[in-house]
UniProtKB/TrEMBL annotation:
This is Probable 2-phosphosulfolactate phosphatase. It is an enzyme of class 3 (hydrolase). Keywords: Hydrolase, Magnesium. Belongs to the ComB family. The keyword Transcription regulation does not apply. Pfam families: 2-ph_phosp (PF04029).
């Protein structure tokens, strides 16, 4: 039976890099949600570590891609709202200080990206990829305090729990606790995320609509998988027909 582990951020990836058969990155506000929206539109997403806009523009030009703006009021950007009308077949280079950085840190291990919008679909694809006896490492990204240290983020913990609950299998203690937190949140999940530190920050900056999109629970049937440096949809019709053991 598949084994499921859960550890935070880059240290979690490093801890499981030699043992995991699949990684699932969870950065709900907003990288993972933005990836799911873009893939819903028929686009592909190239993760890019957060840096200056000029470097992103140069990288996008070299790849035949469109660089997302660091300014969330522009389109396209890291704001999921800005991607609702993204043209099909767009190659979107998406700078992100957390989700992109983690996506690029997993080396050759198969890597997926999950949000609350596509937890079921991504879990099914990850389970298929790992095989019956594989190890799946679910990595909540978290945020950063002003001194650069990790700030565990409620929305990523609950998003990881949603994926873990859908995966089934044998969880380690951390994975079990994350899945239990997601189940216990139940109908309060939306209020919890809206009033979390990250949720309040987004609302105060005028991006409450991004929270609405992030909370479209399992509205997407995309399973973003990183192949050759870009996320594309790896969902198959048969995936969701098979229940987690």
């Amino acid at each position: 039976m598949v084994r499921v582990v859960c550890e935070w951020d880059l240290a979690g990836i490093e801890a499981w890099k030699e043992r995991a058969d699949v990684f699932v990155i969870v950065d709900v506000l907003s990288f993972s949600t933005s990836v799911s929206v873009a893939l819903d539109r028929g686009a592909t997403v190239i993760p890019f570590p957060y840096g200056d806009a000029a470097a992103a523009e140069r990288a996008a030009a070299s790849l035949g891609a469109v660089a997302a703006s660091k300014d969330r009021t522009r389109s396209p950007s890291l704001s999921p709202s800005s991607l609702r009308d993204l043209p099909a077949n767009t190659r979107l280079l998406l700078p992100s200080p957390n989700g992109s950085r983690l996506s690029l840190a997993t080396g050759s291990t198969p890597t997926f990206c999950a949000s609350l919008r596509n937890a079921q679909a991504t879990a099914a694809a990850a389970r298929r990829t790992a095989g019956a006896e594989g190890v799946i490492a679910v990595i909540p990204a978290g945020e950063r305090w002003d001194d650069g240290s990790l700030r565990p983020a409620l929305e990523d913990w609950l998003g990881a729990g949603a994926v873990i609950a859908a995966l089934g299998g044998i969880p380690n203690a951390e994975a079990d606790l994350a899945a239990s937190a997601f189940a216990r949140a139940d109908k309060r999940l939306g209020d919890m995320i809206r009033t979390s530190r990250s949720g309040l920050e987004l609302s105060e900056r005028g991006f409450a609509a991004d929270l609405d999109i992030a909370l479209e629970i399992d509205s997407s049937r995309t399973a973003p998988r990183l192949v050759d440096g870009q996320y594309s949809n790896d969902a198959r019709p048969s995936d969701l027909a098979v229940k987690a053991p």
